[in-house]
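Appendix B. Chain record.
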Amino acid sequence: MADSSNNANQTPAIDETPISPSRPDPQRKNSLEQHLKHRPVRQELVKKNILPASNAAPGLIAQQKELEKHMRADSLNEKIAHRPSPEALIKEGVLHEDPRSPEEKYQEAIEEEYAKREGGA
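Structure tokens predicted for this chain:
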């Protein structure tokens, strides 16, 4: 019984041997140097879309991307708002027949009628 109380008071042995050798491996060092010599330049990484083309601070890049996304959406919405109607494209000879279904034509006519009434009231 005396032995078990002595074992309880002893701290477990800690293995303090290093994970990697204390001397640097010359082949590994040379390998790293070789890889760094052949490291691609920033422009090449930007061209391959590995790095962003922006010169903004890394903390601002996410906000910059979000702004670009919203600007692109605004631009597309502006273009969609000003696109010609199917009727105008048929008159110009771009379309041969209206691509909308009868239900879509009806719904658009209803919306136009409501817009006229609201604007005229």
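Further analysis of this model is presented in Appendix C.
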